[in-house]
Write a structure and sequence with these properties.
This protein is mainly beta. 0% of the residues lie in helices and 58% in strands. It is built from no helices and 9 strands. Strands 1, 2, 3, 4, 5, 6, 7, 8 and 9 form a 9-stranded antiparallel beta sheet that branches. It is globular. It starts with 11 loop residues before the first strand and ends in a 9-residue tail after the last strand.
Length: 114
């Protein structure tokens, strides 16, 4: 067994793309991908940028808004996941704060509930 810690003490601030109140803590890596825990403080944002690869954002707590290629904002909350394609411009913001798991890899598909 191996243990990974991804609490706030293990996180580092990200300021790229004019992001505000945004931290990530690594959880795991795999062939051509990684999994991180992302946190946005109240009023925080992940500034608009093109996805480096396939990217999935799964909300664990809090609420916010995401946008994709068309720029239209969509509300998100616990239990919601959004996926972006490589190169797709996207942005995430929150008024109240949120915690999410981000998975980046070569090929990701959202699965339908069984």
């Amino acid at each position: 067994m191996r243990l990974a810690r991804f609490g706030p003490d293990e996180a580092r601030a990200i300021h790229r793309f004019d992001s505000v109140g945004f931290t990530i803590a690594p959880i795991a890596g795999f062939d051509h991908g990684r999994i991180v825990c992302a946190r946005l403080e109240p009023g925080g944002s992940i500034g608009g940028h093109p996805a480096a690869g396939h990217q999935l954002l799964a909300i664990v707590s809090g609420t916010g808004f995401v946008s994709g290629r068309d720029g239209a904002e969509h509300p998100i909350g616990p239990g919601d996941a959004v996926a972006w394609e490589p190169g797709e411009m996207h942005e995430t913001r929150t008024d109240v704060g949120l915690t999410a798991i981000i998975v980046e890899g070569e090929a990701l598909d959202l699965l339908e509930p069984e």
